[in-house]
Design brief:
Blueprint lengths: L1 E6 L8 E13 L2 E12 L1 H29 L4 H9 L3 H25 L12 H29 L3 H28 L5 H32 L4 H28 L5
Parallel strand pairs: 1-3
Antiparallel strand pairs: 2-3
Helix pairs in contact: 1-3, 1-5, 3-4, 3-5, 4-5, 5-6, 6-7
Length: 259
């Protein structure tokens, strides 16, 4: 088993979290072997996780009932519609706090999981990487909501855009609550356990994305909108942005802008 020491981040308070993680696995005559990399997570990650824990506490003790209903609506479209129709001021606050948790935990997860795939953290600094990725995630979803709101007005489908935007943020708030316990422990465990947690978290994100697509189809079907618009939605708002994002990341990485 080969061990590669890899220290990251120029910002740390006083202490750091050291862990050995598997980055590759390959076959040998004696079985399977792999490469371990020592990753030094800065203490700033602990602060981010504490902030996430504070948000979780606020959500649980102030909006616990609302969050339970939101979790049920993850699979139940009619539950989501009922929540939209009965939306109160407390619901709006719960959505806000839960989505803040979502963007924060997404930034943390992407940053701490990069070394598992043999990649460097952005700019070699976990603090900047988490802040940058969280901000980008928030801006992307705000921009998407604004675009859908504008399209709803232009094409006179405000009902569809309102239900879609609500469900989009509904799924995000559920993801944040579900994956937070998983992401919070990644820096504190080592070896294959951490890798399993990373894989499970990725699976949750993918599953939620697929359920979100299915929910979009349910909205279109429920409003008797042509299936053509669902296909157009997939091509314009899901597949094309994903391809552009992958291409943009590839170009930036080739020019070493994040190192």
């Amino acid at each position: 088993m080969k061990v590669d020491t890899h220290e990251m981040d120029t910002f740390a308070l006083h202490d750091s979290i050291q862990a050995y993680i598997p980055v590759t696995t390959f076959a040998t005559p004696d079985g399977f072997a792999g490469e371990l990399r020592q990753v030094v997570y800065p203490s700033s990650i602990t602060l981010f996780i504490i902030c996430g824990l504070a948000l979780m506490t606020v959500i649980k003790y102030n909006f616990g009932k609302n969050q339970l209903e939101a979790l049920k609506s993850f699979f139940n479209y009619h539950q989501a519609l009922r929540m939209l129709e009965e939306r109160r001021e407390s619901d709006r606050q719960a959505v806000f706090y839960s989505n803040v948790l979502f963007v924060c935990i997404t930034g943390i997860f992407v940053s701490v999981s990069l070394p598992f795939f043999g990649l460097h953290v952005l700019w070699g600094n976990y603090t900047l990487s988490i802040l940058f990725l969280s901000a980008v995630t928030a801006l992307l979803y705000i921009l998407k909501a604004l675009i859908w709101h504008a399209l709803g007005i232009v094409f006179m489908v405000q009902e569809f855009s309102k239900i879609y935007i609500y469900n989009m943020f509904l799924y995000n708030r559920n993801i944040g609550v579900v994956v937070f316990p998983l992401v919070a422990v990644i820096p504190f465990v080592a070896g294959n356990i951490a890798l399993y947690i990373v894989n499970v978290t990725i699976f949750v994100y993918i599953l939620s994305y697929l359920l979100k697509l299915w929910r979009t189809f349910q909205i279109i079907h429920g409003l008797n909108v042509s299936l053509f618009y669902f296909i157009l939605y997939l091509c314009t708002f899901e597949i094309l942005p994903l391809l552009l994002l992958i291409k943009g990341c590839k170009v930036l990485w080739e020019f070493n802008l994040f190192i």
